[in-house]
């Protein structure tokens, strides 16, 4: 299981996320709507942290969270952050390429294999609030994403390519089709958000 997989928890629910460096988490923007940092905790493998703040990306379903205290290798040697991709490291995202999605849906870590179906410029959720710009649609026929997986990392060839965002479940029937928020088109926004988020007081 991916050691960087986390659960973002509030008193009214939880979603998934991924630790990308000792201070920062990526997760699903739609989960953070109407939330405050004061009631939010991030839980990893044998660790937990408060959230000092976050920035939503304006055009897609990604948020950048800053932890109140970092996850340092000296204290947590089993935890390895999953770094942001680079142009050189990004694998081809072609139809039929295998994917592995990770999430906390169901309350425990899950690994969900799939394959790329197609890319789409923009996907809008059924509530019209969630918008994914630069979307990747994947098929997961055997172990599909479920509520709680949102924000979890999606990997191709061991590289982080996106975050779980939406599932296709008309009338409550999960069709095994998931929409992924691609990371690479938004790398500049993500890095800018990391730079703008201030340290926690007393850090």
From TrEMBL:
<dbReference type="GO" id="GO:0006508">
    <property type="term" value="P:proteolysis"/>
</dbReference>
<dbReference type="InterPro" id="IPR043504">
    <property type="entry name" value="Peptidase_S1_PA_chymotrypsin"/>
</dbReference>
<dbReference type="InterPro" id="IPR001254">
    <property type="entry name" value="Trypsin_dom"/>
</dbReference>
<protein>
    <submittedName>
        <fullName>Trypsin</fullName>
    </submittedName>
</protein>
<feature type="domain" description="Peptidase S1">
    <location>
        <begin position="12"/>
        <end position="178"/>
    </location>
</feature>
<dbReference type="GO" id="GO:0004252">
    <property type="term" value="F:serine-type endopeptidase activity"/>
</dbReference>
<dbReference type="InterPro" id="IPR001314">
    <property type="entry name" value="Peptidase_S1A"/>
</dbReference>
<dbReference type="InterPro" id="IPR009003">
    <property type="entry name" value="Peptidase_S1_PA"/>
</dbReference>
<dbReference type="Pfam" id="PF00089">
    <property type="entry name" value="Trypsin"/>
</dbReference>
